[in-house]
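Table 4 source record.
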Amino acid sequence: MFRRLAGLVSGILTTGVVVLGALTWWVQNSIKQPLAVPAEGVQMTVPRGRGVSWLADELATRGWVESALPLKIYARVKGREAIQAGRYDALPTDTPAGLLAKINAGDVVKFSIAFPEGWTVRQWRAALADAAEITPVETAAEDTTVAAYLGIAQDIPEGWFAPDTY
């Protein structure tokens, strides 16, 4: 009786170790495979409030990975579940683990916009509104509203901004 029980327990433990080993190999292999993105790469936007589960599902939906589950398991085990909103480059050389690292770190795509000397605040606001990469928070605000929002004591914020490339 004891030998049977010991054999059964041994068989269950052996099966568990084999299954865990196979699962570990599958997850490690899956997160190290390059993303199936176009050769020129693409950008993806991570909306505010989304998590790793959404990211993994999104990558699978787009066909960039075969399955969402390995990335979900990897993120949970490594403690990398907090992702940051923003726009990210996904390159064909990126792996799911590498893209997750970018998104964990907030390594977003950066854009620049130039404000030449002599421009008025109104011209600055028009340039910001025309920039496709920028989502305006307030589009109809008058100069006095902008000044008040920024804590500028004057009604007109002229002269408070330095011409530069931001």
